[in-house]
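@channel anyone free to eyeball this complex?
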Amino acid sequence: GAVVSQHPSRVICKSGTSVKIECRSLDFQATTMFWYRQFPKQSLMLMATSNEGSKATYEQGVEKDKFLINHASLTLSTLTVTSAHPEDSSFYICSYRPGTGDNEQFFGPGTRLTVL
Amino acid sequence: AQSVTQLGSHVSVSEGALVLLRCNYSSSVPPYLFWYVQYPNQGLQLLLKYTTGATLVKGINGFEAEFKKSETSFHLTKPSAHMSDAAEYFCAVMRWGGKLIFGQGTELSVKP
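replying in thread with the prediction:
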């Protein structure tokens, strides 16, 4: 399957600071990508969807000004958590859906964010 | 609207025993269904998927699932559990635009 990387794998930051998480597809170009959040012992919750060349679409209840998503290219997407607070501590996972008609999503390894 | 329900947040089996993880879905259109596995602090890996065609789907690592429309189910099975199967398993249904709606997850433990 396709390879998706995330950087960093884990990050600890102070409350009030901003954190940027990168998501890269290493071997294909993806027109659609997704960002998920997963709290401990819980399922993945979709935060937003973005298609190359357009702005991200956020799920209900997700603050777009707090979670900035930039689908910079067909192989790079970034999620910036602005003015992070302890309640933002979570596991953030990105996924790419190739624009080849395949229905499968390829997931990154995730980023563990801890806000002190 | 689509939704997924996984019965049992935790399942424990002995090594060599049958694995059965239950998933029921709700969908107003023919569903695309997926099973993913997640190991601790890692992303998700696709085990298998059902889109159209044969209702018995075979996946990686000896897993398979059967799509039963009449029961709105997509249960995951493996004839003989291995210690390396211990992980979190998620059933998911695809929504419009390719979005995945995940079930609550089932943690599988395998006892020696």
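from a first look: The mean pLDDT of chain A is 89.
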